[in-house]
Write a structure and sequence with these properties.
It contains 24 helices and 34 strands. With 1012 residues, the protein is of the alpha+beta class. Strands 1, 2, 3, 4, 5, 6, 7, 8 and 9 form a nine-stranded antiparallel beta sheet that branches. A six-stranded mixed beta sheet has the order 32-33-31-30-28-34. Strands 11-10-16-15-14 form a five-stranded antiparallel beta sheet.
């Protein structure tokens, strides 16, 4: 009751203007600042979480790449040994030679700890890298001056005994240093695992020999053609390097990264003081120490135990693994990247668990821990600073509000006093002037109002006298307005009429006369049914009843226009009320909407056509924020599994889910920013989560002013095509690996033959060597050209364009091709009129090498080859001409296609892959140029290609052409250092010219160029 009483008192007493101006302003300011502070705090926390997770995911991705590079070297080494065994470089029949090969191989792989070969007969060959610390700790009997490798081989009579030797750098066994017992290779865990699985794989982590280091073994069994086990190659790789790798990861000032197996045992950790295993000497080993033979050289004297993450001495690691086990019941459940935010030891921490697997059976978890306190301290500092600023702003604003309200209310108070004085005493008191223009205007209006009131009485008498005169004038003006109204309505193309309650016309405009082919005299006063006909009247009678009942009516219909054609009309009927709100008639407005109806019908047909389209079509609004989807056809619903209602109003990101960092999506974004049409290939995801490849083309839609209003996207599911391309790339990768590896071994053996390391060759041996060497080079060149052609076709080899002087390209060409020309007794003549060009110089040089190489093949001895570079208006024309055998007319249209070669009657014994000209065409077309050939059989050929000049002002056209003629005697000493074997071989097998390019987009290889 007391509260109600106080409210009643407040209602009786008006609130001062000062408080009305100040209080809402202060409340609004306080609310705004409070909301801003709260939102700032929340956005800071969200930004911290996003930053932490992003850093952890980036470091995890880099760590996986480093692990792949480090761990897979062991399997690559085993595969290399397998390839050497298949190629006959090594053989199980000569284990000593094989042992030496393994020793030399081991020196090329610093990351490999030891290499092994074991056979079912118990033959065991070992190579082990010894560190200086092992020698100092007497873990090995090598001397400090010895080559830091020791080799072991099993005793032929007792395979369980392994004799260790010191070796030389060339792989020779120098002296025995130790005999280790109980080392039968068939009892080794990795040997048993390889026999059981029958394929390549990893062993479980184990102790390396007698050392206190953790390692894993990569094994690879090999079998005879009949399926009998011949032996097993294996390589040990230390996991100590992974600890160093984790220790180098920098996510924040205080973080931990560790790797565990699915069982929870530690593999590696970034905490250097936290061990991942423990070891100790067995009791009987301690009793055997006599100061001469270290007991730890025997693995049986060490008790080696793995440490589980749950038993780690680091409380953060221990707490994190316990939290993961609580959340997921078991580490085996974690099959994808998990990002968690959990309290650990009183501090909120961010945790990421990233699975790491490889094709050989490794299944680890990479776990990162970052305390949120590492990031939040700076955020709290910013929040405190913002809060202090907001407080000062609030205090200043409150003071300004009080001062400003006082300034405004003071002149209003004076005006109030003047008003009360006039009411009480009828005296005019002029208030003081104010600097506020509105208040000053109000004061002047007040004074003017008082003076007007004083003059009102005198004006009243004059008004009575002139009233009748004004009424007459108004009546005359009304008649004039009616005529003007008639003139205005007659100019409107729509039909306008007024009908009384008796449903007879009282007013019509000129359009009414035209529509019904009647004049106004034939319409005014007539009933509606007399004008529009009984049939039309029956259709509209219902609407006339409603409008005369006081309802505004709108409807659409169709009428017969002058008895010839049908018109669609839109009708609005508005009732006319008198001062008592009684209906005294209605106004009618007829509008012709035939054109609009035709457009609607066309749009309906267009919609039906789009809905029936097989391609997926969607439209987004480019003028709304986030460009929402406004239309999808049924094909989109069928392709994605989303309904149209689920997609309307959403951005197209719904199809990419979290997979948004795609090159195709970046390309689409750039096109949208530039307002251009674009086509891209991206990965999309259906509603059920399945992925499909989407070939999408987007096109902008402009309005009449040229502004982009919408984008239309046409999509096509090309998953099957991408699967074919992927299989093709996998096949090319297999070709690159499975063919290059044995070829490399073959060429290595041929190099040994050429160097005479395997003895001198007789005449027949030299011929066989030349033939084998030529065939190996030809096959290598064929593989390289096939992969190069596919890389160019897929766009993996991107152009690295720059401004380059034309004579520099020509100098490089002559330096490479002049020895070939001199050997064939052919003269090369050059003529250039272009100074520089915008191009990829390495690629253009590749084209010229192929063309000049072909010209040397088919030119006759003592002949001439002419090379020209000519500057035209908007391009540069290159021409390579020879006067050799020429090309038949039927081959001119197919010469640039893959594997197209001339008839043997024309080419003789000149061999080539048939891909050189195809690669030339791909490179020229990548420069937006064109290439062609002009040839007459028996008179020679001219290969021409044109490259557009991208910047015409930068290409200088010389009127005086400079000509350079190079003969076979113009370059002395160019052939020095060339291999004599290559000098004596066939011209087509003279050399393989290799140029290394930046080909980071090609996952298979570095591009190699050769002469066809």
């Amino acid at each position: 009751m007391q509260l109600l009483t106080r409210i009643g008192r407040l209602r009786k007493h008006p609130i001062p203007l000062r408080w009305l101006l100040t209080v809402p302003f202060v409340l609004q300011l306080v609310g705004t600042l409070g909301l801003m502070s709260f939102l700032s705090y929340r956005s800071s926390l969200q930004g911290i979480e996003a930053l932490a997770y992003g850093s952890m995911q980036d470091s995890g991705a880099h760590l996986i790449q480093d692990l792949d590079r480090y761990l897979q070297s062991a399997h690559r080494l085993n595969q290399s040994n397998m390839a050497a065994l298949k190629a006959g470089v090594i053989s199980l029949d000569n284990l000593d030679q094989l042992h030496r090969y393994l020793i030399l191989q081991h020196q090329q792989y610093p990351e490999i700890t030891s290499m092994h070969l074991g056979t079912p007969a118990g033959e065991f060959r070992l190579v082990h890298r010894v560190t200086p610390q092992e020698i100092a700790d007497r873990m090995s009997f090598l001397l400090p001056s010895d080559f830091p490798y020791e080799a072991g081989r099993s005793n032929g009579e007792d395979p369980s005994q392994l004799q260790l030797y010191a070796i030389s750098q060339s792989g020779e066994l120098i002296r025995p240093i130790e005999t280790v017992t109980h080392q039968d290779v068939r009892d080794q865990p990795w040997y048993h695992q390889a026999v059981e699985t029958g394929s390549s794989g990893w062993s479980k982590p184990f102790q390396i020999g007698a050392k206190n280091l953790l390692a894993i073994n990569a094994y690879n069994p090999f079998y005879s053609p009949g399926g009998q086990l011949l032996g097993i190659f294996s390589a040990n790789i230390s996991l100590d390097w992974i600890n160093q790798l984790l220790n180098g990861i920098k996510i924040s000032t205080d973080h931990y990264v560790f790797i565990v197996e699915r069982s929870g045992n530690l593999i590696a950790t970034s905490s250097t003081e936290d061990p991942i295993y423990e070891y100790s000497l067995l009791e009987h080993s301690r009793n055997q120490l006599n100061g001469q033979v270290p007991a730890v050289t025997n693995p049986n004297n060490i008790l080696f135990q793995r440490i589980s993450a749950k038993d780690s001495s680091n409380p953060m690691i221990q707490a994190a693994i316990n939290k993961l086990n609580q959340n997921f019941d078991s580490l085996e459940i974690i099959q994808s990247t998990q990002l968690l935010s959990l309290p650990i030891n009183g501090d909120h921490c961010f945790i990421s668990a990233i699975p790491y697997r490889d094709m050989y059976g490794l299944d680890w978890l990479i776990i990162s821990i970052v305390p949120r306190s590492n990031f939040i301290d700076k955020a709290i500092e910013v929040i405190y600073r913002n809060a202090l600023i907001c407080l000062f702003v609030l205090l200043g604003s409150v003071w300004f509000g009080f001062w400003f309200s006082k300034k405004i209310s003071r002149p209003l108070l004076r005006l109030k006093c003047a008003t009360q004085a006039f009411i009480q005493h009828h005296s005019l008191h002029i208030p003081a002037t104010s600097k506020i223009c509105e208040i000053e205007s109000l004061s002047q209006a007040f004074v003017s109002m008082i003076r007007d009131l004083q003059r009102a009485e005198s004006f009243q008498r004059l008004y009575q006298e002139t009233l009748e005169c004004q009424v007459a004038e108004k009546t005359q003006a009304l008649l004039a307005s009616k005529a003007e109204l008639q003139l205005i309505t007659d100019s409107i193309p729509a039909c306008i009429s007024y009908v009384g309650t008796d449903r007879r016309y009282r007013f019509v405009n000129h359009a009414y006369e035209v529509w019904f082919n009647l004049n106004k005299d034939q319409i005014i006063g007539k009933h509606v049914w007399e004008v529009i006909g009984s049939t039309g009247y029956k259709k509209v009678e219902e609407y006339l009843d409603r409008v005369l009942a006081g309802e505004t009516v709108s409807y659409e219909g169709k009428i017969l226009y002058q008895g010839k054609k049908i018109r669609y009309i839109s009708v609005v009927l508005i009732p006319d009320h008198d001062e008592n709100q009684a209906v005294q008639g209605y106004y009618a407005l007829f509008t012709d909407i035939s054109a609009q109806k035709q457009i609607e019908q066309s749009l309906q047909i267009l919609k039906q056509a789009v809905d029936a389209a097989q391609n997926s079509i969607l439209i987004v609004d480019a003028q709304l924020p986030d460009m929402p989807i406004t239309y999808v056809n049924p094909a989109v619903e069928k392709l994605t599994g989303y309904s149209a209602l689920e997609l309307y109003g959403k951005n197209c990101r719904v199809f990419q889910k979290e997979d948004r960092d795609q090159l195709g999506i970046l390309k689409l974004r750039e096109a949208i920013q530039d307002g251009k049409e674009c086509r891209a290939l991206i990965r999309n995801y259906r509603k059920n989560g399945s992925m499909y490849w989407n070939d999408i083309t987007i096109s902008p839609i402009h309005d009449s002013s040229g502004q982009i209003t919408h984008y239309v996207g046409i999509q096509q599911d090309v998953t099957d095509q991408q699967l074919v391309e992927r299989r093709k790339e996998e096949f090319l990768a297999t070709v690159s690996h499975e063919l290059r590896t044995p070829l490399t071994s073959v060429q290595g053996l041929l190099s040994l033959l050429a160097a005479g390391q395997l003895g001198s060759l007789n005449e027949m041996g030299v011929k066989l060597f030349n033939s084998a060497n030529a065939d190996a080079q030809r096959l290598t060149r064929l593989i390289n050209e096939i992969l190069d052609l596919e890389s160019i076709r897929l766009g993996h080899s991107r152009l690295q364009c720059q401004w380059v002087q034309t004579f520099q390209i020509l100098e490089n060409l002559l330096l490479l091709m002049q020895p070939l020309a001199e050997q064939a007794h052919i003269q090369i003549e050059t003529e250039i009129s272009a100074s520089q060009m915008w191009t990829d110089p390495d690629r253009i040089l590749q084209v010229l090498i192929n063309l000049v190489g072909n010209a040397i093949k088919y030119a006759s001895s003592g002949g001439l080859i002419q090379i020209k570079a000519e500057q035209n208006k908007d391009s540069i024309l290159w021409q390579v001409r020879d006067w050799g055998t020429g090309i038949p007319p039927q081959n001119l249209n197919t010469i640039f296609q893959p594997f197209q070669r001339l008839d043997s009657s024309l080419s003789g014994d000149r061999k080539g892959s048939g891909l050189g000209l195809t690669i030339c065409r791909q490179i020229v077309e990548a420069h937006d140029g064109e290439i062609w050939v002009e040839s007459t059989l028996g008179q020679g050929s001219a290969f021409c290609f044109r490259i557009p000049a991208k910047n015409k002002q930068s290409v200088v056209d010389h009127s005086n052409r400079s000509q350079v003629v190079v003969t076979t005697n113009s370059v002395e000493g160019e052939l020095e250092g060339l291999n004599q074997v290559h000098r004596d071989s066939d011209l087509s097998e003279y050399a393989t010219l290799e140029i290394t390019m930046d080909n980071t987009n090609d996952p298979h290889r570095n591009t190699r160029w050769g002469i066809t």
